[in-house]
Design brief:
Largest sheet: 6 strands, mixed
Number of helices: 18
Helix content: 40-55%
Oligomer: single chain
Strand order of the largest sheet: 4-5-3-6-7-8
Distance between the termini: 93 Å
Radius of gyration: 36 Å
Length: 454
């Protein structure tokens, strides 16, 4: 049996079209099919010297031409040379410093520990000493709650605090252009971001974009820096909130009013939320809240006339004169007022709430959803809801959990709600019976990150 002639290219052009590697596989197939007629490349192609290995210069010239212009050679050679250039180089490379790699991974572990558990040692309890007042021994004992034994040993290692390490992509603690920081700077910035007067827990969120946004807001070295005008505005609002409570306490000391003493910062917080959202073109706010602080919110947030609030304390007034038989700390109102920060008119609706503290939550969500529907605000960009809670009621009443679970259903969602939990230290007495460090742990049942504890 003879070998079919059609298997053998006759010219160099044909062989270039096949490619040298294809010719080699063709020879192997022919040798297996015709073991008795073993042929060599020289016998098959006596005029093609490059198959004998004597034309290496020719191949090198092709490669040099291809390096300058890939289109100057046949496309088969182009593919072949591309594969060669993508292959791992056999040149000498410096050995990897395994000790540095291990230390770099330890830095990344330290950053992750603060992101996940840093809120557990934040100074959010006004009745306890702040971190600034604690000794170094107390701070080291505190860090054992969130750091592993290896992380602590790495921090305390000789000379480690002065060594420079590259910042991984999982953190935003570096300024623009900063690629490396000393371990001391990394540790200090992480404590400032996660263990200051604000504790933030967000690593349970499944969406990477949301986590990255939160990191950028809190880890940036310039985060939380307020201008002089902003500080003046916050101070004036805080004074107005505090003096309102003081006036009611002095004028009607025996009246039940559910004051906001100790949590007066709630009023500046709500006003800041409304200001920032109004700048982003939110026009309508639906608020729901329990008894505590309602009169202060009515006076300083909703701007209800003070004479209307003070008239509720007059014992000569009867319920029928006001058109409602409810008590003063259950009432709601609706108002449209001008916002000086955004220069826009905003609508504020505070929903009336009965004695059941969290019963108003689904009512607020339903009202918000209805307004969004009738105003064709499908994305919730112009109408939003704000819910206020007490720390014990937020953790203990099932309607909170049920409202959260309805929040992402297509025909129930309001596209996001800001929850503000007023911590009046009631929940601290039952922490030992709970499975979490904070009363707001129930919010982790969904991917919600706009839950603030004051």
């Amino acid at each position: 049996e003879t070998t079919p002639s059609e298997f053998f290219p006759k010219t160099t052009t044909t062989m270039l079209r096949f490619g040298a590697s294809r010719i080699r596989y063709l020879w192997s197939g022919l040798a297996l099919r015709h073991p008795r007629q073993a042929v060599t490349s020289a016998q098959l192609f006596p005029d093609e010297s490059f198959l004998k290995g004597t034309s290496c210069v020719y191949i090198e010239e092709l490669y040099e031409s291809w390096s300058k212009d890939p289109s100057s050679v046949h496309k088969s050679w182009n593919n072949y040379f591309s594969q060669l250039s993508d292959a791992p180089s056999g040149q000498y490379s410096h050995p990897v410093d395994l000790e540095y790699v291990r230390d770099q991974l330890r830095v990344q572990s330290l950053i992750r520990a603060y992101q996940v558990r840093g809120h557990q040692i934040a100074s959010v309890d006004p009745l306890s000493p702040s971190n600034a007042e604690k000794s170094s021994t107390e701070l080291r004992a505190q860090e054992k709650r969130i750091l592993s034994k290896e992380d602590i040993e790495f921090i305390q290692g000789n000379g480690n605090m002065q060594r420079f390490f590259e910042l991984p992509s999982i953190t935003r603690i570096g300024n623009e252009g900063e690629k490396k920081l000393t371990l001391a700077e990394v540790h200090g910035r992480l404590r400032k971001a996660y263990c200051g007067n604000i504790g933030i827990e967000f690593m349970f969120i499944e969406h990477k974009d949301q986590c990255d946004w939160i990191r950028g807001q809190f880890e940036s070295p310039n985060a939380g820096i307020l201008s002089k005008a902003e500080r003046r505005t916050l101070m004036s609002r805080l004074i107005r909130s505090s003096e309102f409570e003081q006036f009611l306490a002095d004028k009607w000391p025996s009246e039940k009013r559910f004051g906001l003493e100790g949590c007066e910062v709630l009023v500046p917080a709500l006003l800041s939320i409304i200001d920032h959202c109004s700048v982003d073109e939110v026009d309508s706010f639906i608020l729901g809240m329990p008894h505590r602080g309602r009169l202060n919110v009515l006076a300083n947030v909703a701007r209800q006339p003070l004479e209307e609030i003070f008239s509720q304390f007059d014992p000569t007034l009867e319920a029928g004169e006001e058109g409602s038989g409810d008590v003063k700390y259950h009432l709601g109102m609706y108002i449209e007022r001008y916002n000086r920060v955004s220069g826009r008119t905003v609508k504020l609706s505070l929903v009336a709430n009965p004695s059941h503290l969290e019963a108003v939550d689904p009512v607020v969500q339903g009202k918000t959803r209805a307004e969004q529907f009738y105003n064709q605000d499908e994305d919730g960009e112009n109408i939003m809801s704000i819910l206020l809670h007490g720390d014990a009621a937020f953790a203990g009443q099932g309607v909170v959990y049920e409202t959260f679970h309805l929040s992402d259903l297509p025909h129930y969602t309001t596209r996001g709600t800001i929850h503000v939990v007023v911590n009046n230290q009631v929940m601290n007495c039952v922490l030992c019976s709970c499975c979490s460090y904070e009363c707001v742990h129930v919010r982790s049942c969904i991917c919600v990150y706009t839950c603030v504890s004051l």
